[in-house]
């Protein structure tokens, strides 16, 4: 399956049906929640200080819910009306805006204490029309410059996104730097195909010394319980001797035969005391 | 859910509209009041960001005159409660926000303002 951003622009891709699907999918919910927590961690806000955050591409409020739980006041912007509708139904606390982030923000300077954005930036990398204001570099420039001015000094913005090539990362970071941001890319689980996550950590203002870019998580995909997630396969029981228990035991055979009889299959052998018994090498 | 907290941060972002583009004026509004949790620490932190005259003006437009004309020096509990009500409990559900400079209309429907611009308005 190709990436959704290659299929259609976001406001069309996330129509009513897709928005519902996306929000009710528990796997999506889990992934979004994990990434939101990680983004908040990278945001490194001072504790015990209720902050006002911007959720860029808030969608149906999956990440916003986490912000609510953590006690932040937030505002969210998204371009897909269907997603926002779902967010309204879910009664999230934040203020929602229907806005194209590629057109820039109109917030007053210093409005927000931080910004997070989960799985959004890649949507800015495709041109929808040939108009000059619709080219990715132009939209990114507009986005980063207006975002930079609407953030407080010092503060941070953390973006999780799915780049499809190094060129895209290069493009995004260079434009962000031109817009005045410091910082760079943090990659979690760089050697894993599944758990690899790319975060763009941007800083507004240095606050004296240069801010240290946080380390990406490393090592094996150690997810919280140490197990691969979503594994539903039945583990085969082992007997004491370490041998696998035969799954096709007497009960199973009887059940199968019963089934065949019910279906009217001819020539099903009769049940007897020999059913399911092993044939000894010597009679 | 346009609350005055966001309205107070919102300026017009149409191309070339850089001065006198704040605050946006309300028109034909329907207001709903919803209770929310009182958080004095957040308000104390947030008060520095508020454009006071714009907030008082917007609150008057919506028919709430509980805020004083001048920002008080001391933040007592009564004042914080009033501020909380004005900032976080008054929701504009339907209506239009109009930029005082370029007269661009931002329609609000079911609490969500439409901030999309036409192609020629993008900066």
From TrEMBL, chain A:
Q: Which residues form the Methyltransferase type domain?
A: 54-126
CDD domains with a match to the protein in the record: AdoMet_MTases
Q: Where is the composition biased (Basic residues)?
A: 230-247
Any idea which UniProt keywords this protein has?
Cytoplasm, Methyltransferase, Nucleus, S-adenosyl-L-methionine, Transferase
Its GO biological process annotations read: rRNA (guanine-N7)-methylation
**What Gene3D superfamilies is this protein classified in?**
Vaccinia Virus protein VP39
**Bias (Basic and acidic residues):** 265-274
Q: What is its main location?
A: cytoplasm
18S rRNA (guanine(1575)-N(7))-methyltransferase Bud23 C-terminal domain location is 204-280
Pfam families registered for this protein in UniProt: Methyltransf_11 (PF08241), WBS_methylT (PF12589)
Q: Where is this region: Disordered?
A: 213-249, 262-283
Q: Which GO terms describe its cellular component?
A: cytoplasm; nucleolus
The subcellular localization recorded is:
Cytoplasm; Nucleus
Q: Name one GO molecular function term.
A: rRNA (guanine) methyltransferase activity
Recorded family membership: Belongs to the class I-like SAM-binding methyltransferase superfamily. BUD23/WBSCR22 family.
Its protein name is: 18S rRNA (Guanine-N(7))-methyltransferase
What high-level taxonomic lineage is stated for the organism? Eukaryota, Fungi, Dikarya, Basidiomycota, Agaricomycotina
TrEMBL record, chain B:
- SUPFAM superfamilies noted in UniProt: Trm112p-like
Q: GO molecular function: any one?
A: protein heterodimerization activity
GO BP annotation list:
rRNA (guanine-N7)-methylation; tRNA methylation
The UniProt entry, under InterPro entries, shows: Trm112, Trm112-like
Query: What family name appears in the similarity comment?
Result: Belongs to the TRM112 family.
Question: Which organism's genome codes for this protein?
Answer: Favolaschia claudopus
The name this protein carries in UniProt is Trm112p-domain-containing protein
Spell out the subunit comment: Interacts with TRM9.
């Amino acid at each position: 399956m190709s990436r959704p951003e290659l299929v259609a622009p976001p406001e069309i891709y996330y129509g009513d049906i897709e928005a519902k699907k996306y929000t009710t999918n528990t796997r999506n919910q889990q992934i979004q929640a994990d990434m939101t927590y990680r983004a908040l961690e990278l945001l490194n806000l001072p504790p015990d200080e209720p902050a006002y955050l911007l959720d860029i591409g808030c969608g149906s409020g999956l990440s916003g819910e986490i912000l609510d739980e953590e006690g932040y006041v937030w505002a969210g912007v998204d371009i897909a009306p269907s997603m926002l509708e779902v967010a309204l139904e879910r009664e999230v606390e934040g203020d929602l805006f229907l806005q194209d982030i590629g057109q820039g923000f109109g917030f007053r300077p210093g409005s927000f204490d931080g910004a997070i954005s989960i799985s959004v930036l890649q949507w800015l990398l495709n041109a929808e029309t040939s108009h000059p204001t619709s080219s990715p570099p132009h939209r990114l420039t507009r986005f980063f410059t207006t975002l930079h001015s609407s953030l407080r000094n010092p503060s941070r913005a953390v973006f999780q996104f799915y780049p499809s090539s190094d060129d895209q990362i290069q493009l995004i970071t260079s434009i962000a730097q031109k817009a005045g941001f410091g910082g760079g890319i943090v990659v979690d689980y760089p050697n894993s195909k599944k758990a690899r996550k790319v975060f763009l950590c941007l800083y507004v203002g240095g606050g004296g010394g240069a801010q240290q870019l946080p380390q990406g998580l490393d090592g094996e995909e150690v997810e919280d319980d140490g197990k691969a997630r979503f594994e539903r396969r039945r583990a085969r029981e082992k007997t004491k001797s370490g041998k696998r228990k035969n799954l096709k035991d007497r009960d199973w055979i009887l059940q199968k035969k019963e089934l065949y009889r019910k279906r009217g299959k001819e020539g099903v052998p009769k049940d007897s005391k020999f059913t399911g018994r092993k044939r000894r090498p010597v009679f | 859910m346009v609350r005055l907290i966001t309205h107070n941060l919102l300026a017009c972002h149409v191309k070339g509209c850089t001065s006198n583009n704040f605050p946006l004026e309300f028109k034909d509004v329907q207001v709903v009041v919803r209770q929310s949790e009182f958080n004095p620490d957040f308000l104390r932190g947030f008060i520095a960001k508020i454009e006071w005259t714009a907030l008082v003006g917007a609150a008057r437009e919506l028919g709430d005159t509980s805020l004083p004309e001048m920002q008080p020096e001391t933040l007592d509990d009564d004042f914080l409660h009033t501020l909380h009500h004005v900032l976080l409990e008054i929701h504009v559900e339907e209506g239009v926000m109009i930029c005082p400079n370029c007269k661009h209309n931002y329609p609000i429907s079911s609490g969500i303002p439409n901030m999309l611009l036409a192609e020629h308005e993008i900066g």
